[in-house]
Amino acid sequence: MSDTIQNENFVELNYKVIDKKTGDVLVTVDYPLGYVHGVNDVMSEQVTKQLDGKKVGDIIDVPIDTKQLYGDRDESLVFTDRIENVPQEYREIGMTITMENEKGEPRNFIVTRFDDKTLTVDGNNPLCGREVFFALEILSIREATDEEIDLGGAVGADPDLNEILK
Fold it and tell me: Given 3-state DSSP classes, what are the helix, strand and coil percentages for the chain, each rounded to the nearest 5?
């Protein structure tokens, strides 16, 4: 058994997404992420390379290129409307509203601001246009079982963090 992260180890970690400029924690996980190192593509190669050889308790910071992930911020995806045109249930900061374009394609918009006159929604990814990094804390390392190696992660788990960590 290895006490450092190597291929075919089952690794559990916590992570936070932190804004470089403000230090604000933008995203955090409520439960550990478990994966098989070198087998599962839940994280980008850039991230897994930095985890190689790390030990339980280590915390690493990995810069993330949000421009590469989400593209440039698109101000045409920000809309403000009069508050009386918006149903009461959408009048909450952080509320996600799914809308469709003329082709019927869905897009999520997040309520970013409202007052007694207007409500603003933003269709950009909340990380778009920010300089962020992941703070990853290694919680446990062990040899993966054959079944975990085949699955790339914990048996019965279905991690889908590609959108965030790639």
Answer: 20, 40, 45
CATH class of residue range 74-122:
mainly beta
Are 70 and 128 in contact by the 8 Å Cβ rule? The answer is: yes
Res. 108 pLDDT band, cuts 50 70 90: very high
Nearest-CA neighbor of 122 among 73, 83, 72, 164? Answer: 73
Q: What is the average pLDDT across 11-30?
A: 91
DSSP per residue over 28-51, as a string? E-SS-EEEETTT--SS-HHHHHHH
Residue 147: enclosing H or E segment and its boundaries? Answer: helix 146-151
Report whether 33 contacts 161 (CB < 8 A): yes
Nearest partner of 137 among 18, 2, 39, judged by Cα: 18
Find the range with the poorest average confidence among 10-19, 50-59, 137-146, 153-162. 153-162
pLDDT digits (tens, 9 = 90+) for 61-81: 999 888 888 889 999 999 999
Instruction: Spell out the domain ranges in the chain.
Output: 9-68+128-151, 74-122
CATH fold, domain 9-68+128-151, is Chitinase A; domain 3 (3.10.50)
